[in-house]
Structure formats: C-alpha cells, structure tokens
Predict the 3D structure of the following.
Amino acid sequence: MFESLTEKLSDVFRKMSGRGRLTEDNVKDAMKDVRQALLEADVNYKVVRDFCDRVREKAMGQEVIKSLHPGQLMIKIVHDELVGLMGPVDSRIYYVTPAPTIIMMAGLQGSGKTTTCGKLSRLIMAQGKRPGLVACDLQRPAAIDQLNVIADQIGAPCFRMDGEKNPVKVARQSLDWAAQKGCDVVIIDTAGRLHVDEEMMKQAQEIASAVRPHQIYLVCDAMTGQDAVNSAKAFNERLELDGVILTKFDSDARGGAALSVKSVTGKPIKFIGVGEKLDKLEEFRPDGMASRILGMGDVVALVKKAQEEFDQEQAAKLQEKMAKGRFTLNDFLGQMKQMKKLGSMKDILKLLPGMGSMAGSMEDMGIDDGEMERMEAIIHSMTPKERENPDLIEANRRRRIARGSGTEPEDVSGMIKSFNMAAGMMKQMSGMGIRDRMKFAQQMGQMGMSGAMPKKLKQRSHRLTKKEREKNKKKKGKR
C-alpha cells in the first residue's frame, strides 16, 4: 500500500544524508518534499500541515543541527511523529464477565464488513473464546447466507431469523440464543449503504440502544482514501466508536486513510485486513507501520507471524537433526512449505529492514515465488532414497527427475546446490545462540538473498518481457 510513499520519503532522506549538517534552508526543502509525498498518498490536508510543522520544529532543534548524522536523526524524528500520528493503539479485545461480550460492526456497503466479522471471529477463537455471529444485515441480498457460510468455514454458530424485517428484533433475540449456545462473544453484522444516510444511521443507533454493545467497530475500505476518513467521522458522531478496522490493506491504494483516521476522528485503527482469506486480519501496530512506511521493515510482525504459523515441535526436531548433520531434502521441502505459510516472497521482503523499497521490483531482482514451486516439483519427482541422500543423483537420475518435474537437468543440479548451501548454513546456525544466529542471518542477507537460487531459474525472469510475465501469470491462474 505505501510503496510509492516509501520510495519518495527514501529519496528525501537520501538527499539529506549527503549534507554535512542541517540548516533551516535544507530542512525547509526536505519538508516540502515530505509534504508533497504525504498529500499524494491521500493524507488529510490538515493532518499533513500539522505533521510537517511538528517535524520541522523538532528538526531545527540544537541536537539535530549539531549532529554528525543529521539524516539519521531526521528519519528518527519522522518515524516518531508517524507513530504519534497513528497511535497509541490498544488492539486487545476486552472481554466482560459475565459473558457474552457484545461487539457491533458498522460500515458502508462494500467495505468488507461481513467478511471482517468472520476474520474477527477467527482471531477471537485463537484466543480461546467462543464467538457467535448474528445476521442483522437485512438490507443486502444474500448477506445472511454469506455470514452463515463464513460461520461454517470457521466453525462458529450463526444466528439468523429468516423472513424477519426488523434488525433490532433480531439483535435482541440473539442475546438469548448466545446464552443458550454458551457464546463468550456476540458479533453483530449490521446493514450498510453505498453512502452515509439518515436511515442507516438511525437503524445502527437503534440496534446499539437495544443491545448496548461493549465495543463498536467501524469497518472502512482503505481504497476509498479520505472518503473512509469522512465516513468514520460521521459514524463516530452518532455511535461513539471504539475503533476502526481498515480492510483491503493489501491493495495498491495510497494509504492516506491509515495516516488520517486517528487525527480526524480521535479513534484508533484496531485491526487491518491484509487479504481475502479469513486468517488475514492483523492487529494494527503504529510503530511497525511507521517502520514499513520508512522502508525499515517490521521484524516484530515477521517474528509474530512465524510463531503463529510454524510448528514449534517440528522446529525442535529439525534443530536436533541439523545439529547431527542429518538435514535431508524432505526436511528442506518441509521448511519451504512452512515459509509459504508466511505469505509471498514480496510480503516477507516488506518486513525485512532495508528491503521494503525493493519488494516492488522483485522481478528485476530475479526473485520469483514460482521458483519455490519449481523446487518443490523437483523434490517431489525424486525417489525416497534420493531425497534422503542427494549424492545418489547422477546424470541419468537428473534427466529422469527433470522430465518428471517439467524442468531441465541443470535446474535439478542447481536445486541440489541450493539444498547443500542451506544444509551447511543450518548446521552452522544450530550450535549458535539467538544473537549469533541473527548476526549470521544478517551477514548472509548482505551477501545477497538470491545467491542460493539455481542460476538458470534466476535468469528466466530476466529473459522474459513484462508482457510475457503477465501472460504466464494468467496461464498459471487458469491452471
């Protein structure tokens, strides 16, 4: 979402890093560029003005003027101000006793409200609670069925009253149903409209008065930019929101809503939707988001994601095998599958320090998510003995494996070379403490991420034109 903004801010700081010291003139020039970048990212005009004034005031302080590294201090000032602009945020859901905790979801039609009800339910289930979904969107055709399908997918109960025209009545009766079902949390999906109108606001207020929700979240589409901020302001004036959930955060929108909502409404962004799947809802962390915007990555988010997705028991067994030097191609395949759970290579790159701005040009770097799939195909074309002992793979076996995986013999050789490099690194890291591991990983990263990839596979993306790459993507989608 913030790729363009990140690129422009990086250019500003790159210019400043070449200065021997900061002066009033070059700070003024830099802030003009920052102001322009934020406005182009669709950040609210008043928010941009106040933000730039605060940064300019701090940048002209004596500590910065006398600093030997003014560019670095400037980055820190902008980072801290971005954090202040979006935070503080407490993304925890506070559960009441006795249960149930009532959460009401509001928002315009098309914002992704119904899907977000399912995503939030899944997140609540991961915290050991039992949520129940309530279909109070009687306005949109098939909204009730959609919520029911989502509830089935995540294994949560759903309350519906087919034929009922009054959403307030549905909301009231859902509380007795939730008590009978033993639900800890009730999530009420309400109706939206294409734009803010009196009828929708009145209905939302009546539901809120009837069930007295403990928390009210507004779901906004991040792609609508300042319209999302304006609707948040309108809803807050009538409902007293507890927070905002921004959806479609994985889109190519300019991101101004994320930087404006808190300042304009006084209500924090609690969660962000980063994909269509029901597990794609993340807690909003202003410090991590500020780091991403400045191209500094978000290691905390990456570690948290890895902890959620990786099998700890399997990781412990793997570490033991690595220490004994018994890392096989089956283990290598398992590690690749674990990595895929973290998302695409582009998503991972964005979270690594210094790599955020490079994530948008993966094809130019020769990094392609398809490489991992080809490597998996090669391993799957091997016999169990070959996976356990790659040294068995000579010329005839390479040709057979290549035919089975739809690759070339050179690709098989390159993949085995990649495996041997990975096995060697993992054996080295197995005896290290966590600090030494991080240092080692950082050194390997500086040597070049794509160094271990088969040379021929890397060259493929360079040989293809942009039009050919798009054509291949379409073919892959059809398959």
